[in-house]
Amino acid sequence: MKRLCSVILIVTSVLLLVSCSGMEEPHVNIYIENQELENIHFLDRKLSERDLHSMLETVMVGKRFTDLPIITIDDEIIIEATNFEAKEYKVTKYVLDERVNIVSDFEERPFFESEFVDGKGAVSLKASSEFEKYEDYEVEGKPIVLLLFETKIHKSNFTFGTIFLFENDELKP
What we know:
Layout lengths: L1 H20 L6 E5 L2 E3 L2 E2 L7 H12 L9 E3 L4 E5 L6 E9 L15 E4 L4 E4 L20 E10 L2 E12 L6
Parallel strand pairs: 4-10
Antiparallel strand pairs: 1-2, 1-5, 3-10, 5-8, 6-7, 6-9, 9-10
């Protein structure tokens, strides 16, 4: 019995040491100027449309789309790596409806790729007539946009995202 207790104690100690010394989950801050945007961490796996929808539903529970931040044309969206180093990132954008279904093309390729500089990257959306085809899904005249930031950390892909309303008034009459 004494030997069994010793084995259990050793195994527990080793497991505790391994769990404490492991790499913590990567984290980013996403913001424009002084306004922090909600950061959605999608883990280190390839996302299917169903996975994405399920996670977005969870994030939006109890929230109203009208309360989402409004990003305007040429606002610089900053992504800042807080506890990891990565060389580059890719950004993909999707348009959502009010049920967080992706109404734009899910297979869309990244529209922007760049390198991190001092742990930070930036992207901005330009005026585009592409949003006109999603007018039926707008909230208060603004499309719901999901930006996904994908980066490679220690040979694994990690995806982070944020949801906002996009003010695309430059093209509206």
